[in-house]
Amino acid sequence: MSAAITPVSHIDINQWNPEEYDLLFHLANFARMANAVEVEPGPLQGWFKEALWRHYSYAPFNCRVMENYFSLAFFYGYNAPWNPYYRNAEVLKRLELTLEYTFARMAENGAIPEYAPAELDTPMLAPSSFGMEYMSAALEAAGPVLPEPLKSRLCEYARKAAVYVLTSDESWEHARSYTNQFLGAMAGGARLARLTDDDELMDMVTAAGDALVQDFISPMGFLYEADGPETFSYFFVSLKRLAPLYEEWPDKRVLEAFTRHCEWMSRWMLTEPDSDHILLSASHQTRTASKGAYLVDPGRLGVGHARSFLGSQQAAQKGASSLVEAAGHLADPLRLMLLSQEKIESYQNAIAANPQQALAQVLEDTRSLGYPPVSTESACPIYAPTTDELARARASLPCNNPNGQAELFDDDRGNQYVFYNGARYTTAFAFGQKRTAAQYGPAHLWTPDAGTIILAHNGEGPAWETRLMNSELGTGKALANAETREGRGGIEMWLHYSELGVGKAYIVRPDGIDVQIQGQASSDGRMLLECIPLLLRATDELVMDYGRCRAESMSERLLGIVTRYLTIERRGKAVLTIDMGEPISMSLTPTYDKEGFVRCLLQAPLAPHFYFRTGYRVIVR
Prior knowledge:
The structure is a single chain. The chain has 621 residues and is an alpha+beta fold. Helices cover 30% and strands 24% of the residues. The protein is built from 18 helices and 24 strands. Strand 19 (541-544) and strand 20 (547-550) form a beta hairpin. The model is unreliable at 309-319 (pLDDT under 50).
């Protein structure tokens, strides 16, 4: 019978470095995690008998739920005066049991299973890549104090998993659709090669360098996730691999992948002129459903703060700069999603002023939550941009630097994007030939004076689209790419949606967008319904043919408004007008949030004007 791990009930904040405060949650909940390890002999010895991590796929064959072996290794090997678990015999016992349980689940070729036992699961890129990354991190965290037999087996199995990822055809093929799943083995493999002086393994890492900037990244600049862009959400998964990879292997191809994706992100970041808000236009994201997420201020969404970017010991030893240092101003889109130095200091000061309250709050906030593994970068310095850096980054975003031109991009995965950045407004269109969480069509409309006025969601959220009334079918999920051409004062995009029997054209002009639609009612009599997701402020005024309505005082839903024109006034100025061509019945469905946004879905049944053709005009004032 193994003794239980004793939980921490009090901390002496004077023993802590402020950069270690992020470990407070993991320290406070460590005993819960460690005591969840099955210590009794049997087939599940070493298994976490409580679902602490990756709950949705918690099963005895899933080695990803075992990744808290790194948390055990971290606290066992972290020599700090406040850490009672350093070189603790009971922690070591549980660490060995969890590692041996994981090793036993692995395939002979080193592949690590997730959704089925190793002989049935495929592909195994993600669990193998991230699993070996955690193994190499465990070796770094605890290697100097591990018993030699356990250390040797950890090196052996981590290397087997790295070789599987870095050399197998199925891993490379899957990585062409899911880039970050390969990056874990590149970063972890480089770390393992350094720790074990393994030049052959490092050669395998460097052999993937060309693929990183060719096969694993779109010509448009984004790293692939489900064959498309996961511009913001999954980039942070990639970032936590690119940064340590660059420190281990400061190669220009790693820097290129990072800066190209940062440049791509910048196209979808929209500043708000009257606040610190930065809106992320995310309707095009292929995997993570969102509502067109926004930031109240830098650090609200994203990584919060970043480690491993500056002052890295490994980078210094190699005489190299860190990833963000090397990228310079090209890393500005990332900086806008990090907490500033001032906010980090404020957070740290609050904990130092009342550490016991902070400990109690951590326990209260996480009582019903799981236990994600300790970050593999927890021992690295924090990087936080200054206020001046954030101001410069904000000003440098493309939306604040109009060039008055349209740009068209496409790739071999069926992705297509059109950007327009003019003096009056900025907009972007996404089209595709593969079903994902993305919404297709126009993503946003932003103006320099008023900020964002239209913002589409992805997933099942509202899109700027044409739908069949009382149907799930609409152009937001329909697959089609556009034919584009210059003409009529701007760029024209023409699409035919065969599954809907609808044709649609967008004519992007310097003063607005014309939308033309061709299609007749469906066989069961359903009409075409145009949907426009407006992003209003509480003080905005909606002006219609017969009167006006303040956004903050709208009822739950406005039905049957008959008007030709709908104008949005912001701070007393008309900023946008939707001209339907003739009086038409509209409905407006508002939802309110605590930040003062009113997300209002405009829906208008479209009656054909001429031979099943109809349309409307969006005029930017």
